[in-house]
Amino acid sequence: MHRSIATVSLSGTLRQKLEAIAAAGFDGFELFENDFIQFNGSAATLGAIARDLGLSVDLYQPFRDFEAMPELQFRRSLERAERKFDLMQAMGARLMLCCSNTSPMAVDDPARAAAQLHALAERAAQRGLRVGFEALAWGRCTSRYGQAWDIVRRADHPNLGLILDSFHTLSLKDDPAGIADIPGDKIFFLQMADAPLMAMDVLQWARHHRSFPGQGDFDVVTFLEKTLQAGYTGPLSLEIFNDVFRETPNRRTAVDAMRSLLYLESQVRERLDDAAPRAVTLFSPPPLPDLSGISFIEFAVDEAAAASLGALLQQLGFRRVGQHRSKAVVLYRQGDVHLIVNAQPDSFARERFDAHGASVCALGLRTDDPEAAAERAVAMRSQPHHSPVGPGEVRVPAIVAPGGNLVHFVASALGRDGLYAADFVLDDDGPGASDAGLQAIDHVALGLDIDQLDTWVLFSRAVLGLEPGESLELADPFGLIRSRGVANADRSVRLVLNVSLSQRTRTARTLRRSGGGAVHHIALRCDDIFESVAHLRANGVAFVPISGNYHDDLATRIDLDGGLIERMRAAGVLFDRSPAGDYLHIYTESFENGLFFEVVQRVDDYDAYGAINAPARMASQAQS
Amino acid sequence: MHRSIATVSLSGTLRQKLEAIAAAGFDGFELFENDFIQFNGSAATLGAIARDLGLSVDLYQPFRDFEAMPELQFRRSLERAERKFDLMQAMGARLMLCCSNTSPMAVDDPARAAAQLHALAERAAQRGLRVGFEALAWGRCTSRYGQAWDIVRRADHPNLGLILDSFHTLSLKDDPAGIADIPGDKIFFLQMADAPLMAMDVLQWARHHRSFPGQGDFDVVTFLEKTLQAGYTGPLSLEIFNDVFRETPNRRTAVDAMRSLLYLESQVRERLDDAAPRAVTLFSPPPLPDLSGISFIEFAVDEAAAASLGALLQQLGFRRVGQHRSKAVVLYRQGDVHLIVNAQPDSFARERFDAHGASVCALGLRTDDPEAAAERAVAMRSQPHHSPVGPGEVRVPAIVAPGGNLVHFVASALGRDGLYAADFVLDDDGPGASDAGLQAIDHVALGLDIDQLDTWVLFSRAVLGLEPGESLELADPFGLIRSRGVANADRSVRLVLNVSLSQRTRTARTLRRSGGGAVHHIALRCDDIFESVAHLRANGVAFVPISGNYHDDLATRIDLDGGLIERMRAAGVLFDRSPAGDYLHIYTESFENGLFFEVVQRVDDYDAYGAINAPARMASQAQS
Question: What are the chain B neighbours of A557 within 8 Å (beta carbons)?
């Protein structure tokens, strides 16, 4: 499809926006009028810039408060339109968006609306231009696409068509099914927007909280499917009003935008019958990876941090089971948890260490077909990462995740030692304390800057096949934290995305040290948390203290055996219950750079992350 | 009145919150249960801390989902209450807040609700405690104070009373008039909250956007008036859920909180008949100042900046009309505009210069009774500022405004030269370019950190008597700016409060240089903007260039004489029209620290600040 984006979706000056749009591989753009009004050049200059960048000016928008007006206002608006047509011709735009009237002067008279739009289309036709009519969700008389289509049909002018925007339909919970019945060639333009479900005034929602398809909660896939079923062959475009995007560096936003369209196309392509002839070509990347677990986590350290982290890991019950044959890289293992501590100079890890201090620099994800997973990621606009592979070493395809860490795709067929046998001298009886019963990586929690959350949600879905859960807000003593889990279907890979809405929380301070995006903590799963915690305390692991008031309150909230509560109180363990099961957990004190570990036990089918208890942890950290 | 505040209203750990509450002069506090759950100490310890700080624990809150439940849940909740009563007794809290049930299990049966609350009150009575019942705006069956009062009345227990919260009543647009008819001794507690009017779900509004009385749009004065008319004599408290307060340093929030209560009391006191006997004593400060203009603006500079600013002011048509007799301070004048350039070492101005670079450090406001104005400000918890006064010099009372600049109150009776004659060697024919027709200070625009906006709105109202106008959001190329004017009744003093919602706008970058709060630009008024601009351009003043596209669009939007538009285009002048009148304006290029000037002409009764044109200015600044 011809891919387009509205200039309002990006930060920067108009020229900077167009350069970012071109760099991300778009075919064209919608010119948001205010961007042109503030542009320090003529319409012809803008057209020349667009041509130089290989971009078409797909739409001039918006033209407001036109249809269904008294005669005097109608005549004035026609003159206004002529001036805009002048500009469109000078810049090479062929289509104008006319959005439904919000003026109190508008009259509820579809016949009048149709007649006036007919007149506008006739003026456009005289210049070889076209007009598209769009129903705004907050339009005074016309708020649904069905109403707008009725007016376009009545107007019956070849230069007048319909413009669809998924936000206006889905925000009103209107049914998009009827779109499939509209003649495709009368749909002149398609704007796709997603959004989180929010209980607020639709205008405020629309102006501040839209997001790219795949970042929100709308069924955008069905919307596009219905539009294609109608026979639509025009541009696929994005018009996203989002307060955060307004301040995000526009090159990053433009990549997210392109990824969202490619992902949307690929989802629709999977739905539509392959046998049916289609007038448009939809993007078809390799399939989403079938992930089966977190194979390893790699830390970037220097020699000193390698020693202190190694000592901590041994306290946590890990054994040092491998020494790399040629590099300053050590492998630690406990149960199915593999942690790599990389202190090799002149490596990617060292670059990350130099930039951010001791931190996680890579995740390994287990999958059947690592090559296909990496190809999928690259097709979805992730950067590939090519590590040098020594003779006899296993090649592990890798990509760069948002923020700069690596994701490696590890072949499931390699088994437990296969990845390490070639590169490491392995010794299962290497130095270490006794096993503390930590068996698997339950989840990895990331601390992100506010403008990285939507980026990560889309990356998680489109590249890794992880689906987001509920978005929660947690109270730190110095501000709110927004937290959202993403996980694959069998829950063998879980990430938790945390964003500090305040500059003053511990999460925000850690983020500043880490450059804006980092692993915040690592949760390790065990079968018996009391046994594991006793073992870990005996090894000298320090846990975040939890107020006795917490356990007093817990006893009043949840019907629990008194003995269990006393065990939790004594051990410092926190508790959450959902209808599906229970969650017992405890946090270690932080070590370098604010990073810490969580030990968790899941009972039955508990499927979340104990977010209700995070404030107790954050308050304890603030009091220490 | 006994003044109280809920711990949820402030950032920090519980101990830090209590210290801030005590430091601001509160008598007691409401303990928000989560703060206690996360507190690393017992209830007895908390009580001891409170006593040491001289604070009473006025309320334990909230106790949720209690009334109108099935028998089993009711029995369990009674046990839960007993555990909370244990804590209350240990900490010395005598009153518990029970808020109306939001559980889907609640039944709509006021008789059952009353019976269960009676049972709860009976349990409380056995320990000498009391229970207050409050209607949450989103309560399942009980959402209005009238319903809650009906249940309390039916329950008929001396230890059960009503708790009122202005947010829950005013957010539902419920009429507070009926409160006056409730027996005052059955109202056990009063929570006052203000809020901006917002079109959103009431629960989200309540949890994120409440503000202190005087910071929002609610008629909190009438609410308190009705409660006092009922005969209420209990605490006056604040329970404010606000995302920004959660991250604001709590000492500042606590001062704002106290100021809001003092202001509220003073407003109610003015309304109630002085002759009527009242059971409570309401705060009675000196009256609000009657301001009649901005007497002067003072700049903090060093010698180099004094020279460059002086040169710019002369280009702007100012004359150097005064040299201080003993200090490195110079007075510039044009029309009724007085600008003081202070380069005196070892002065307040030099402290500000050292901290923030060349910047405005003080405003002089003209008023009939400067002493009373300063006393009012100090009564409202502003810090007084005592400048050294030399022999023969005029004493000008001053206070510290939020952010650290000074506000001087200048006696109107001093006239044009009276303030300066004693201190300065005056020479009306001092060096300078010819007068450019700039006649008065139209407004002073401040750039504020996000957590200073509510502080400034309340300071403007309670200390200066300036009332806020509409709150607007303006698009900078790198994020949104929130802008709100405050002005006195005759509009002789106008300030514009600007907040950058993004870290990446020019406003935000200027703010970082200035330490978070600074004068952003100064608008000077003239009678004929074309004449003034021609004069200023001839003097070499550089203005922010405005795209010709702006004037093309202006011609399509507003029915203006073509000649006028061409004059505006040629001069680079921007235009706004309201039903009351027109506004013509232009911005100079920035000089030191991002500060710039605006030249404005008001036609008829235009009463705003041309905010619609600010994006054109910001885009131009970003493109230069």
Answer: 80
